[in-house]
């Protein structure tokens, strides 16, 4: 029955003094399909004007969200009068959509903005990927809890809500860190859901370095390769990326990021962050390669990141001429 008509407050507009917005969201990723794809089960919302993703940090204004149907259609009702940006994100695709224009809602507005096309970040074809882009780390390996801490409410669902899972990493990897081999490893079994610190015997902590091993049959020297690092959450962490040389200067560093506190609060996602990293061609090898992901912060057990999705893309393919077509 919301928005209610019985509330006699100027701060709560009744339904007839609110507005609605509708349309259809499509996705265009030419490395997936040459045609647009319906953005099924996507999240579309109105929030205060800002940059793409700024709604995650907006807490003073009002937000109105809905999910699209199987055809990508959406309707948002009950919107308070005001100026908004329209934002959206699509499970299965990285990044965030923002409608170019500010939408003004007046009392009784019924706005149809038609078809919206989201073109997610894309450099070239996918060489390999780890995880599924849905802003959550739930698809990765979540270990059993210490029997002393088990909460029976979450034995079947919400395994990540068990207390003390951050300590299980050091138990599973007491001296050597996680190594994931593309084509052989299974991220649901071999990729720990959170890259946390390792507790040492003297009650101090050390940073961790995870490795991704992958094979390249050839190296295209025309342009840099692109690494997409989508994080589901981060807490007072710093993530560095190195290629084939574990002690070399990093090709990328996030700097200190995050105050999500997701690890300590038994969550599986916080603020979404996407980093697009250029991988220099000169550092790639024909044959075996290793990507090093180092989380350097090491003061507490709750510093670390949860990955949403990682993808390595090759250089963009040259456009064909009419003669070649």
Automatic annotation (TrEMBL):
Limits of the Rhamnogalacturonan lyase domain: 42-112, 126-312
Pfam hit, one: CBM-like
Entry coiled-coil feature ranges: none
UniProt entry keywords in alphabetical sequence: Signal
InterPro entries with a match to the protein in the record: Carb-bd-like_fold, Galactose-bd-like_sf, Polysacch_Lyase_4, RG-lyase_II, RG-lyase_III
UniProt name for this protein: Rhamnogalacturonan endolyase
Organism of provenance: Salix suchowensis
């Amino acid at each position: 029955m919301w928005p209610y008509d019985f509330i006699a407050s100027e701060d709560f507009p009744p339904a007839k003094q609110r507005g609605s917005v509708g349309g259809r969201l499509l996705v265009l990723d030419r490395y997936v399909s040459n045609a647009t794809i319906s953005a099924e089960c996507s999240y579309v919302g109105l929030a205060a004007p800002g940059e793409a993703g700024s709604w995650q940090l907006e807490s003073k204004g009002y937000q109105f969200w809905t999910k699209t149907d199987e055809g990508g259609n959406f309707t948002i009702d009950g919107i308070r009068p005001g100026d908004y940006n329209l934002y959206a994100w699509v499970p299965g695709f990285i990044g965030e959509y923002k409608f170019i224009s500010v939408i003004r809602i007046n009392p009784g507005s019924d706005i149809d903005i038609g078809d919206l096309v989201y073109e997610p970040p894309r450099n070239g074809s996918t060489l390999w990927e780890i995880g599924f882009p849905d802003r959550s780390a739930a698809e990765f390996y979540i270990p059993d809890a210490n029997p002393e801490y088990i909460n029976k409410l979450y034995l079947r669902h919400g395994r990540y809500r068990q207390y003390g899972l951050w300590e299980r990493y050091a138990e599973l990897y007491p001296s050597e860190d996680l190594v994931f081999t593309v084509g052989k490893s299974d991220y649901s079994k071999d990729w720990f859901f959170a890259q946390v610190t390792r507790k040492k015997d003297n009650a101090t902590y050390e940073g961790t370095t995870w490795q991704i091993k992958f094979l390249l049959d050839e190296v295209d020297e025309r342009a840099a390769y692109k690494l997409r690092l989508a994080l589901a959450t981060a807490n007072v962490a710093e993530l560095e990326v190195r290629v084939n040389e574990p002690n070399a200067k990093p090709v990328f560093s996030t700097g200190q990021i995050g105050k999500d506190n997701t690890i300590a609060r038994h969550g599986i996602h916080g603020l979404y962050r996407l980093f697009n990293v250029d991988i220099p061609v000169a550092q790639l090898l024909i044959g075996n390669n290793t990507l090093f992901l180092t989380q350097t912060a090491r003061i507490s057990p709750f510093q670390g990141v949860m990955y949403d999705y990682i993808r390595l893309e090759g250089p963009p393919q040259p456009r064909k001429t009419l003669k070649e077509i």
